[in-house]
Write a structure and sequence with these properties.
With about 475 residues, the chain is of the alpha+beta class. Helix content is about 30%, strand content about 25%. It folds into 2 domains: about 230 residues, Aminohydrolase, N-terminal nucleophile (Ntn) domain (Glutamine Phosphoribosylpyrophosphate, subunit 1, domain 1, 4-Layer Sandwich), CATH 3.60.20; about 190 residues, Rossmann fold. α9 crosses α10.
């Protein structure tokens, strides 16, 4: 069930992963870590633990708090564990797709959790099925599991490296075997992954906020293309993949990461405030109040206010308790979708010229309703400022975006979008302005410092599944079983 009928009018988060080794409260700490990462996926959560001999698992649909209480945690013994919160970018939201996935191999059990999206997963899946592999889920993560299974390499690490050399796209992984925790990040470093420490325990997770919640110390970011093995001997680092130019997802700073996280050495909160400062420099208009669309628009609105001198006000109040509901929206009640989540603070808005600050515009339907709500509350002017450039292209690297023809910025000019949204003016931060907010002077067009494909269409990794091509890996898999020839 979708909590909000307008939920699909936003870029949906990637997944979140957490792993810990050598900790007597491994499952409990994993549960807390996943709770801190809940913003990265609200559809499902899972934990797999291990005591060195046996693996234990619990997975469920819904939020972490709905699935992991004290009784469940007690049924997950062991000194190591990995966990995953999911937003489905690949595969349906059903129990068999919830991660971590687990499989028994000739070397023993392996559990794996994946944040990202493989852009040749469908091509590889078809080749593996023709070879005789039996899939239990519809997630791209299981492709990695099967590639590990058929690898002829001797060690688990080498099998994983062999498997990952065959995939394209984005992945930040945590994996658990009976004597080690493994973390690995794709050679482009599109999704975040960090290493932390709590006393003798080591942690591998998506964001630093998951370290903070359990009192762990941040050690370092895991490098793009790096594979980290944590076992009783400590931490080993391998760099098995060819060096590539780092292409970290710039939208992690705009929206996906939690504001209290430090990502790639930068405070997310500070970057978002600087985005607001750049917005005010680029597109300020005379106004009485700056109002954020909560919660993701807050830091940018604060930056806009400080730079422009226009007072910051909570003109829209968010209801943080809009959870799953037994009330199915009907045609008669569907218009209440926005008001279930946002309500105008009328005394702040009445008679005012309002600058509304939001992080992005996807389809535009929610923005239209929020603008209408602010006008109904008595605002005399509404100017919308967006803390990202126009989202004109879909993401294929772990963020669920609508098809391009559904994106407002792909179908309309700025003037047309202004009319569609019903605002007095509309402005997005420039791409160079967004880069400046991250500390870069501007975007280098020949070698961009981030993945910004949702704004530019410049995808840093092949889109094999989108283009209907067969990768050399898929050809090799089929050739081994005599399915095709190289004519």
């Amino acid at each position: 069930m979708i909590t909000n009928p307008l939920y699909d009018d936003h870029l949906h988060e990637a997944c979140g992963v957490f792993g810990i080794f050598c900790d007597s409260d491994a499952a409990a700490h994993t549960g807390f870590g996943l709770h801190a990462l809940q913003h990265r996926g609200q559809e499902a959560a899972g934990i797999v633990s291990c005591d060195g001999r046996h693996f234990y698992s619990h997975r469920g649909l819904g939020h972490v708090s709905e699935n992991f209480n004290e009784d469940v945690i007690e049924r997950l013994p062991g000194h190591m564990a990995i966990g995953h919160v999911r937003y489905a970018t690949s595969g349906d939201t059903i129990l068999r797709n919830i991660q971590p996935l687990f499989a028994d191999f000739e070397f023993g059990g392996l559990a794996i959790g994946h944040n990202g999206n493989l852009t040749n997963a469908t091509t590889l899946h078809r080749a593996l099925v023709r070879r005789g592999c039996l899939f239990q889920s519809t997630t791209d993560t299981e492709v990695i599991v099967h590639l590990i299974a058929i690898s002829r390499c001797a060690t688990v690490e080498d099998r994983m490296i062999d498997a990952l050399r065959q995939v394209e796209g984005a992945y930040s992984l945590v994996a658990l075997i009976r004597n080690a925790l493994i973390g690995v990040r794709d050679p482009l470093g599109i999704r975040p992954l960090v290493l932390g420490r709590l006393d003798k325990a080591y942690i591998i997770t998506s964001e630093t906020c998951a370290l903070d919640i359990i009192g762990a110390a941040f050690v370092r970011d895991i490098d793009p293309g790096e594979l980290v093995v944590v076992d009783c001997g400590g931490v080993r680092s391998l760099k098995p993949f060819a060096c590539r130019r780092r292409q970290f997802c710039i939208f992690e700073y705009v929206y996906f990461s939690r504001p209290d996280s430090v990502v790639e050495g930068l405070s997310v909160y500070a970057v978002r405030k600087r985005v607001g400062i750049e917005l005010a420099r680029e597109s300020h208009v005379p106004a009485d109040v700056v109002v954020p669309v909560p919660d993701s628009g807050m830091p940018a609105a604060m930056g806009y206010s400080s730079e422009s001198g226009v007072p910051f006000e909570y003109g829209i109040i968010r209801n943080h308790y809009v959870g799953r509901t037994f009330i199915q929206p009907t045609d008669r009640t569907r218009h209440l979708g926005v008001k279930r989540k946002h309500n105008p603070n009328k005394p702040v808005l009445r008679g005012k010229r309002v600058v509304l600050v939001d992080d992005s515009i996807v389809r535009g339907t929610t923005s239209m309703k929020i603008v209408d709500m602010v006008r109904q509350a008595g605002a005399v002017e509404v100017h919308m400022r967006i803390s990202s450039p126009p989202t004109a292209y879909p993401c294929f690297f772990g963020i669920d975006t609508p098809r391009r023809e559904k994106l407002l910025a792909a179908r309309h000019t700025l003037e047309e979008m202004t009319a569609v949204l019903g605002v007095d003016s509309l402005a997005f931060i420039s791409l160079d302005g967004l880069y400046r907010a991250t500390g870069e002077r501007s975007r280098r067009h020949e070698q961009p410092q981030f993945c910004d494909a949702c704004f530019t269409g410049a995808y840093p990794s092949p889109l094999t599944d989108q283009h209907g091509l067969k990768t050399p890996t898929a050809l090799a898999l089929l050739t081994k079983k005599g399915q095709i020839s190289h004519r």
